[in-house]
Amino acid sequence: MNNKEIALFANDIRRNVVCAIGKKGGGHIGGSLSICDLLAVLYGEIMKYDPENPDWEERDYLVCSKGHAAPAIYSALALKGFFPMEWLEELNRPGTRLPGHSDRKVPGIDATTGSLGQGLSIACGIAHGLKVQGRGQSVFCITGDGENDEGQIWEAAAYAANYNLDNLIMFLDWNKKQIDGRNEDVMRLGDLAMKYRSFGWNSHRVNGHDVEEIRQTIYTAVRDKNGKPTMILLDTVKGAGISCIEQIENNHCIGLPEKLVKECLGELSLVQGICLKN
Amino acid sequence: MRRAFLNRVDKMIREEEDTVYFTVDIGMWAIRDLLEKYPERATNVGIYEDGMFGIAAGLAAGGYIPTIFGIQPYLVERTLEQIKLDFAYQGLGVNVIGTGAAVDYPKYGYSHYCAEDAGVLKMIPGVEVLTPGTANEFISLFNQAYRDGKPTFFRVSDHPNKEYDIDVTLGKANVIKRGGGATVIAVSVMLDMVMEACSDLDVTVLYYTSLAPFDADTLKREYNGGKIVVCEPHYSGTLDYDIIDALAGRSVQIEHIGFPREIFRNYGTYEDKMEYYGLNTEHIRAALAT
Ligand SMILES: Cc1ncc(C[n+]2csc(CCOP(=O)(O)OP(=O)(O)O)c2C)c(N)n1
User: Fold this and answer.
1) What sign does the dihedral A59-A65-A66-A68 (CA atoms) show?
2) Are A60 and A137 contacting, i.e. CB atoms less than 8 angstroms apart?
3) Does pLDDT of A43 surpass 60?
4) How many cross-chain Cβ pairs, A to B, lie less than 8 Å apart?
5) Residues with pLDDT less than 70, chain B
6) Which mutation among B25, B47, B82, B99 tests ligand 1's pocket best, with the greatest number of atoms within 8 A of CB?
């Protein structure tokens, strides 16, 4: 995909996040929207996968450690044909195939998460296994900035560097907020790029809504392996891409009544794309 | 119940200088001013459950009374070793208030369920497990326990009893009804449902809000030889050891209305879940009829 197509894909992911969450009247929208541009780059251009065969052995892996952003991952997967778009309507419903947090029973999902802090370790294990087997594919992982409060994240950070997991690329969604407000007010995280560097990682800071910048940085990390894992700090906005959601200060998990769904879709419909019928 | 506990904690921090309160990034808007006014003693530590238990143990060792609020699976399972070694073994006290027990967060998936909370905690000797059925019961149990120097877990439910509000005592069961047939053990938020199911039945109903310590005396005294039906809003069989131990030497038939010991792979509302797993009046009556 070229950058324009990736941007359109990101827009489609957002539309479907809104529709899926809207069907249930609300959910984790803020942290889902902040990673849509990343997902568009990953699924649009970078990752190797086969929707017909989600368990394809040669695929790249993606662990969404901040499991509450599952609606965004599910939307990307549905748009890429891993399962029918209609499944998105069932998000969180009784008997659903799409539970609220990222779940391995869903085609295309590589790890069940939802308890924050654990996914990066799982990604380390997958990356380590692939390395031992001499396989060349990459393991991607997405963590939240609030999630980086958890000690297990830093244990995994030490592990990945110690075992030279240069097939591991972790994106840290630096949207500067967690549930109770701004990271700065809840738990100061300091300079995250520097922290990972001091743990022995490569680290880069990019505009998390600039698809070209994200894409180039990932390309370089995959191409120029140097024995270190890579962390890409995505400078993002919680609720990104829909101004009426961005403007809600506490937009972690909110009600999404029909009126707000309409307003969101109104903003996104400037470009026509694929969306659930609403 | 949440509102009641927030008010109670608010009062405690304002009035008692040796108390400290921790929350783990779970929506503290209601007592934001408390966090601002007493930043040294009321604090949001971010998403950091296991470490927070260690910190609380350190404060308890220094004479403070710590109270922690968070989401049940992360407060119970992620921190189990801290509970065991930092508190139970070292004889230090902490009050842990958990929301989202069993299937109270019904749509968020398995990571957010915690039907094993009481069972897991009850395996650690000396830990108190208190499961109030209403806001008043929470306040009463909290007042009785919060300074007792023990690790005490309070389960705060979003689905309290509405009909029954009982005067509860830590470590004691309440006799709600005496009858000649079976003995029904109603745990916490199951009481309304049990009483509805048993309104026209000649049974004994015992109400338990203290799961540890378990009141064996009341059961021993009130049990009249019939079947025991345990209605519990967590994994079935959580109280079996206590029941059998209380009635040692007697043969008892126990039936369970509770969550089956399986991994929950379905999602939906709280009501869907209760129906799906048979925690309803119909099943209680059926268990009593057979
Ligand atoms: C171990 C654990 N503790 C608490 C929670 C509850 N929780 C869900 S999302 C969240 C905030 C996450 O913040 P962040 O990682 O910054 O995510 P984002 O802002 O990108 O959505 C918390 C505390 C959880 N899911 N897991």
Assistant:
1) positive
2) yes
3) yes
4) 91
5) none
6) B47
Please write down the HEC assignment for all residues of A111-148: CCCCCCCCHHHHHHHHHHHHHHCCCCCCEEEEEECHHH
Same fold, B2-156 and B174-289: yes
Half-sphere exposure of A153 (CA within 13 A, CB side): 26
CATH number of B174-289: 3.40.50.920
pLDDT in the model for residue B269: 86
C-beta A15 within 6 A of ligand 1: no
CA of A2 to the centre of ligand 1 (A): 33
B22, B25, B74: best to mutate for the A interface, most A CBs within 10 A = B25
- For A145, name the nearest residue in chain B, comparing CA atoms only: B47
Estimate to the nearest angstrom the gap between the alpha carbon of B159 and the chain centroid.
13
Domain locations in chain B as residue ranges: 2-156, 174-289
The CATH code belonging to domain B2-156 is 3.40.50.970
pLDDT at residue A271, as a whole number? 64
Instruction: Answer whether B110 sits within 8 Å of A112, measured CB to CB.
Output: yes
User: Does the Cβ of A146 fall within 6 Å of ligand 1?
Assistant: yes
Residue-wise pLDDT for A14-37, tens only, equals 999 999 999 989 999 999 999 999
Residues 70-89 of B with CB under 8 A from A: 73-74, 78
What's the pLDDT tens digit per position in A218-231?
Answer: 999 999 999 999 99
What distance in Å separates the CA atoms of residue B108 and residue B273, rounded to the nearest whole number?
A: 13
Residues listed for chain B: 290
Which residues neighbour B16 within 8 Å (Cβ) at sequence distance 6 or greater?
A: B65
- Alpha-carbon distances of A15 from A12, A19, A208, A263, B250, rounded to whole Å: 5, 6, 18, 11, 64
Cα maximum dimension of chain A: 52
Ligand 1 nearest-atom number relative to CA A148: 15
Q: Chain B: give the shortest CA distance to residue A175, in Å.
A: 15
Q: Which of residues 262-281 of B touch A (CB under 8 A)?
A: 265-269, 272, 276
**Full set of structural domains in chain A with CATH:** 3-277 (3.40.50.970)
List the single range of A32-41, A89-98, A243-252 with lowest mean pLDDT: A89-98
Model-wide pTM > 0.80: yes
Tokens read off for B148: 């007792």
Of all protein residues, whose CA lies closest to atom 10 belonging to ligand 1?
A: A179
> Phi and psi at residue B272, in whole multiples of 5°?
-55, -45
Q: What is the whole-number distance in angstroms between the Cα of residue A149 and the centre of ligand 1?
A: 10
| Ligand 1 and A178: CB distance under 6 A | yes
What CA–CA distance (Å, rounded) separates A240 from A7?
A: 13
Give Cα separations from A121 to A47, A117, A127, B107, B172 (angstroms): 20, 8, 10, 25, 44
| Exposed e or buried b per residue across A221-240, where buried means at least 16 C-beta atoms within 10 angstroms of its C-beta | bbeeeeebbbbbbbbbbbbb
